[in-house]
Design goal:
Elements (H helix, E strand, L loop, with lengths): L3 E5 L4 H18 L3 E6 L4 H4 L6 E7 L8 H7 L6 E5 L3 H9 L4 E4 L10 H13 L13 H11 L6 E6 L11 H14 L2 E5 L6 H8 L7 E3 L5 H10 L2 E5 L2 H8 L3 E5 L5 H4 L6 E4 L21 H13 L3
Parallel strand pairs: 1-2, 1-4, 2-3, 4-5, 6-7, 6-9, 7-8, 9-10, 10-11
Length: about 325
């Protein structure tokens, strides 16, 4: 059994979630738990907390990730046999080599620009392991924590418990909050619903706009919770509806039926990897031609989102 380090350069929660299936494949192939080195922004410690394939998560803050010898110091004494670097970074390759890792696998240097994130990772892992991997990522959550969340927040099968991804990494990736309010009102007319508003401290103005409406009494905000506190709540729920955001990728990884609104990011890279994700693109666009700089948030049809939401919920009845 080899002692293995996986190095992730990407800073997004969604990026980490997509890579989980690759990490699991490496763990199974080596018949050993894996250590993951990642940026703090990926929230890897929280997301991988209960993962049986993970030995340890080493998180680096935004200053540490730019370093060199400080990273070597963190990993050299652990004496890894192999490292898998999900990046074309020459710096990370040198860090691995100078840390005494016996065998270092990495993307071809300066090759990643314009690459499909999900496909590049899958191709890289499959080439090394010489086996096809299932891209469907799975996030683990302790059953006792899930049961506690159900009791604390009144989550049961008689109610449609929906994680609502109202936030995003930027305004061009965020459907108008008025549309979400209207959507929640319409869904609540069809079913008894509880809406969990998935956003952080920076999204409190969005949360406030929802809480100040009539539908606010059916809503619970995540904005002041730590991520690890929200994961059992998400695991206990049934659906995700919202923007292409880290919350959605966590929900998908936890097995929730999910409806993603792609308006300024590529579903080919961030949507098709999971069978749990249903995709909506701006009117007139497709999965193939929706991408970065599409700027299509005003072309996402409310009627289409409502229709797809009802279809998703009804398919689970």
């Amino acid at each position: 059994m080899s002692k293995v380090l996986v190095i992730i350069k990407s800073m997004g929660i969604g990026d980490l979630c997509i890579l989980i299936s690759n990490i699991h494949a490496i763990s199974k192939k080596n018949q050993n738990k894996i250590t993951v080195l990642a940026q703090q922004n990926t929230r890897a410690s929280s997301i991988l907390k209960d993962d049986p394939h993970i030995e340890e998560v080493i998180e680096l803050n935004e200053n540490e990730i730019k370093g060199f010898f400080n990273i070597i110091k963190k990993i050299k004494d652990k004496k890894f046999d192999q490292s898998y670097i999900y990046s074309d970074s020459l710096r990370l390759y040198l860090i691995s080599k100078l840390s005494g890792v016996k065998e270092t696998f990495h993307y071809k240097f300066f090759s990643k620009k314009g690459e499909n994130f999900f496909k590049a990772a899958k191709r890289f892992t499959e080439k090394i392991l010489k086996t096809e991997i299932d891209p469907q990522s799975k996030i683990y959550c302790n059953n006792n924590d899930v049961e506690k969340a159900k009791k604390k927040f009144g989550i049961n099968k008689g109610i449609k418990n929906i994680i609502c991804g109202i936030s995003a990494s930027g305004p061009t990736k965020r459907w108008d909050i008025k549309n979400y309010i209207k959507l929640f009102e319409n869904l609540n007319k069809k079913f008894q619903c509880k809406f969990f508003l998935a956003g952080g401290l920076n999204d409190q103005e969005l949360v406030k706009k929802i809480m100040n409406t009539e539908i606010g009494k059916n809503c619970i905000s995540f904005s002041e919770m730590k991520l690890y506190e929200t994961i059992p709540i998400i695991a206990a729920s049934q659906y995700y509806i919202g923007n292409d955001t880290g919350w959605g990728h966590i929900a998908s990884g936890l097995g929730l039926k999910s409806l993603f609104l792609f308006m300024d990011s590529p579903p080919l890279a961030y949507g098709i990897y999971s069978k749990n994700i249903n995709i909506i693109c701006p009117d007139g666009l497709t999965i193939e031609n929706t991408g970065h700089n599409t700027r299509g948030k005003d072309q996402i049809s409310f009627d289409n989102v409502l229709k797809k939401s009802l279809e998703m919920i009804n398919s689970n009845l």
